[in-house]
Amino acid sequence: MEKISVIIPVYNRLEHLRTAFTCLLNQTIAPYEVIITDDGSTDKVTDFIQDLLHRAKFKIKHVYQIDKGFRKTRALNNAVRNCSGDYLIFLDQDLIFPEDLIEKIIYEKEKGRFLMFRAALTSEEERNELIKKIESGETYEKGLSCIPNDEKLKESFKMIKKDKRNNFLYSMKLRKRGSKLVGMLYSLYKKDYVKINGYDEKYQGWGYEDDDLGNRLYKAKIKSKPIFLKNVPLHLWHPFDPTKKKSSNEEYYYTRKKEINNKNYRCEYGYDKSIEDDETGINELN
């Protein structure tokens, strides 16, 4: 049976990690392992999930690097370098999701395809209520009852329909690319990730790293497959980060996009060769 590795990049806000981790504990099918890959958080991961570890039916690794600024791409490659799975699920630390997420992914996964999902945004009040409900052991479906604006949930379905339409237009050669990869929640075979050399570690600082990964997957003939979930994943509210108004990666992204269009889909620094040589730490938590 193929092993499933769930990869969660984190940087502080670890109260959100606790809620996402609880959602993983509640899955109808457990993954083989969960890898929490840390971009230098000041808080300790174990301070937030230590009391939950005994419930886990999967292996847990904490992979970490020192804080040298926003290095999400390296953190994600660190995780894949140290994972044992055949199939990878990437999800953000501030995402919560229904109990059948992994079951659905196992049913839908395909070689040469990456699965992608859409999530609905929450307000600060909704986030606080959702965290309480999940901590108290309520089902995810009951937790959704605290989202009074049904249109917000319907919007994620509309986005998936648009993604499917874009894929159809791409198949008819009416678009250069199908639906955009959204880094919040997606999955693919490790073999496909390695084929393009993973995340491009020249993306340092916020912005464009997920879109670049999607561009390179398409050029490597690894296409997207948008997935509907009956119970919509939710993105937990957090304060807006003022450093994310404009990305320093914009110029590099468009330079690389031209190169990728010429089928240069493997990045120079990625899965097989890191751009930096500071040590990566690994702790097995259970």
What does this structure look like?
With 286 residues, the protein is α/β, with parallel strands linked by helices. Helices cover 36% and strands 16% of the residues. The protein has helices spanning 14-25, 45-49, 72-81, 101-108, 124-135, 140-143, 150-171, 190-195, 209-219, 250-261, and strands spanning 4-10, 33-38, 59-64, 87-91, 95-96, 113-116, 120-121, 185-189, 223-226, 234-235, 281-284. Helix 1 (14-25) links the parallel strand 1 and strand 2. Helix 9 (209-219) packs parallel to helix 10. The longest helix has 22 residues, at 150-171. The protein is globular, with a radius of gyration of 18 Å. The model has no long low-confidence stretch (mean pLDDT 94).
Summarize the model shown:
The chain has 286 residues and is α/β, with parallel strands linked by helices. The chain has helices at 14-25, 45-49, 72-81, 101-108, 124-135, 140-143, 150-171, 190-195, 209-219, 250-261, and strands at 4-10, 33-38, 59-64, 87-91, 95-96, 113-116, 120-121, 185-189, 223-226, 234-235, 281-284.
Compile the SSE list and pairings.
Elements: E1 4-10, H1 14-25, E2 33-38, H2 45-49, E3 59-64, H3 72-81, E4 87-91, E5 95-96, H4 101-108, E6 113-116, E7 120-121, H5 124-135, H6 140-143, H7 150-171, E8 185-189, H8 190-195, H9 209-219, E9 223-226, E10 234-235, H10 250-261, E11 281-284
Parallel strand pairs: 1-2, 1-4, 2-3, 6-9, 7-10
Antiparallel strand pairs: 3-11, 4-8, 5-10, 6-8
